[in-house]
Amino acid sequence: MNNMIMETYVNNGSMSMSLGKTLRAYLIEAKYAFISILRIPVLPITMMALPVFMYMLLAVTVVSRLAAENPNVAVSFFSGFLIFAVIGPGLFGFGVGLAIERQGGILNLKRAQPMPPASILIAKMITAMACTGFTILLLIPTAMKFGHLHLASGQIVNVVLVSIFGVLPFCSIGFLIGTMVSGTGAIGIVNLIFLPMLYLSGMFFPLPEILQPWARVWPTFYMNQIVWSAVGIESQIDVKICILILLGITVLCTGLAARRFARVG
Question: Long-range pairs for 184-193 at CB < 8 Å and ≥24 separation?
Fold first, then answer.
């Protein structure tokens, strides 16, 4: 009975909120979602600092000469680390953060409050997009300074937009993981998906012939094709197909996660 009263109160409160109050509720939730990420040091380091530092290290020590001689090498190397930066906020920030909040009972507390029902998820999505944008704005000048990358202003805009919206499929995967595992096991499960997704999609080095067909299993492969197109390199697959595949992954994972979230919490 108390649950029914609370649900009615929450629904009526959400419906009666003005547009301004609703937007304010979303912004406040996004603010505290970002703060909660900063309270777990491993997450901002993994999501934002690590891609930039690793790119700078490898660009100077490993591929500097090859990138200077071949612009495609510079773009391919940059694209791999760009996607590295895109994956982190979705899988670690969204998935691990959601699992930790579920395990601690924080989500149950938030759902019992008179706030927009989707504010928790939208706040995490906005936070993931903001973290991605911040990292990309650091990575691009680093690549142009140390990685012999040459991008026109229009290409930079394309790369930033692709990156910010490209985080959404990985948010949906993180959402699904966060609704299925505990907070203590989430980092391990995410790494089991994160590392193969990076290295078995052919972003950083050519795969053996036996593994090449399996590269298309990973969403990072299609994201890589979109980034190539954004910087003016011909993609292996039509970009429209890549976008549709990533959109399908987003809808499927979000739908499964939302169904489980509504049933289990």
Answer: 184/103, 185/99, 186/95, 186/96, 186/99, 186/100, 187/42, 187/92, 187/96, 190/91, 190/92, 190/95, 190/96, 193/91
